Amino acid sequence: MKRTLILLLSLCLITGALFAAGQGEESTADRIVVATDATWPPMQFIDENRELVGFDIDLMRLIAEKGGFEVEFQNTAWDGIFAGLATREYDAVISSVTITEERRQTMDFSIPYINAGQVLIVRQNQSGVTTLNDLRGRSVGAQIGTTGSFEVQAVAGVELRTYDELGLAIEDLANGRIDGVVADTPIAADYVLQNENYRDRLQIVGEPFTEEFYGVAVRKGNTEVLERINAGLQAVLDSGRIAELEEKWLR
Prior knowledge:
By secondary structure, this protein is α/β, with parallel strands linked by helices. It has helices at residues 2-29, 55-67, 81-86, 101-104, 147-153, 166-174, 185-194, 223-239, 241-249, and strands at residues 31-36, 39-40, 44-46, 52-53, 70-75, 92-93, 107-109, 114-115, 118-123, 139-143, 159-163, 180-184, 202-205, 213-214, 217-219. It starts with a helix and ends with a helix.
C-alpha cells in the first residue's frame, strides 16, 4: 500500500511538471521578446520622455496586435544584437535590419516591410560630390556591421571609419573629421531634414544607390515565432496601416 501510494504521488508530480512545461511553452509562444538598437531615429529611439518610440516600434506593436501575441522590447547595442539572437536572449530583432543573403545564412527573416536604400551624406559646403567614387582618398563613416559600411568597403580608395552609433559618425562629419557618411534613407533623412543641429550643415547628395529591404530577424529555424510575426505583418501590410507609419515618421 505504501509503495502504491508513493508511485501514485510520483505519477502526479511527473504529470504536473509536464503540464506546467506545456503551459510555459504556450505562454512563450504568445509573448515574443524583440531586441532593437534604439539609436536610429526615426526608426527606433528613446524620446525626451525616456520612451521607446519610432517607426519600427509602432510597426512591431501593430504586428503583435494583428498576430495575436504580446511583444516585449529589449534595447540592445547593435554590435551584439545578432549574437544575442543566436544565444536565445530574445526571440527576434526589429532594428532597421536589411535582409541580405549573408545574413540569411545565420538567421531567418520575415517578409520585407520597407525599401530603404543607402544614401550619401556630406557637408553643405562640399561641392562636386554626388557618389562614393567622388570621395576616393578621403574617409567615409558608417555604423559598424551595417550594409552602409559594406558599401563603403566595396569602393577602392575610400577609407571606411566605423562607429558604434550612427550619430557619432554624423557628428564627426558635421565637424569636418570625416568627409561623408553612408546610411539608410530613413535615418539619413531624419538627421539631415529633421534634426535642427544638422539640417543647415549637412545634405543628402545623389540618389539611393542600393535597393534594400528591411525585415524582422528571427533565430534560424524558429518557425513558430516567424509564422506569428509574418501573419501579423501581412495583416498590417494588407490593411494599409504601414502608409500611416510612413507619414508619421518618414515624411
